[in-house]
Amino acid sequence: MVSAGTEYSEEQSDILRSTADCPAITREMIEELKRRALESPHHRARWCAHPGNDADTQEMVIVLTKSSCIPPHRHPGRSETLSVLEGRAKAWFFDDDGRVVRCLQMTDAAEGGTFLYRTNPGEFHTLELESEFFVFVETTRGPFDPASTEIAGFGPVEQTPQAYRNFFAALS
């Protein structure tokens, strides 16, 4: 039998990892990720194309619901590329003191907005989610170490959608 490339294992209810030799993702899998994101306490789900956290390249399809809270954060020494598949969000970038450096209106390519960005290594960034779902591909250098992500001190203290709406309103 020929592999479709869509085989995966469940690491957590909201984290799936491809087990295929040549990982591939379908619309059906994106719909499954949306369902899992709605059930997740963090309002997000991901499908990892890379074989493990120690892989040199980390490639993921991530689904965020509008209720997901992404604190301003950075990855010292690493850049990150985001490519939009579906939805709308504003990508905010900050200096070390929390001043806005730039804001990009992110959409899929067909909608005509910016659909890809690459952060500078160590640049604080976050997403202001504008659509029911925001679906994107994220690529960064591995290995994955959660301790290497630095959360900014200037972001919302409370991790609630209302706290984030207030935070983004103050930026505009």
Describe this structure in a few short sentences.
With 172 residues, this protein is mainly beta.
Q: Judging from the principal axes of the Cα atoms, what is the shape?
A: globular
CATH class: Mainly Beta
Q: Work out the helix count.
A: 2
Overall CATH architecture: Sandwich
Structural class: mainly beta
Q: In angstroms, what separates the terminal alpha carbons?
A: 54 Å
Largest sheet: 7 strands, mixed
Give the integer mean of the pLDDT values: 94
Q: How would you sum up this structure, described in words?
A:
- The chain is mostly beta strands.
- The protein has a single domain, classed as Jelly Rolls, CATH 2.60.120.10.
- It has two helices and twelve strands; from the N terminus they run ββαββββββββββα.
- The protein has a seven-stranded mixed sheet with strand order 1-2-3-4-11-6-9. A three-stranded antiparallel sheet has the order 8-7-10, with helices on one face. It has a two-stranded antiparallel ribbon with strand order 5-12.
- Helix 1 (27-39) links the parallel strand 2 and strand 3 (44-48).
- The protein starts with 7 loop residues before the first strand and ends with a helix.
- The model has no long low-confidence stretch (mean pLDDT 94).
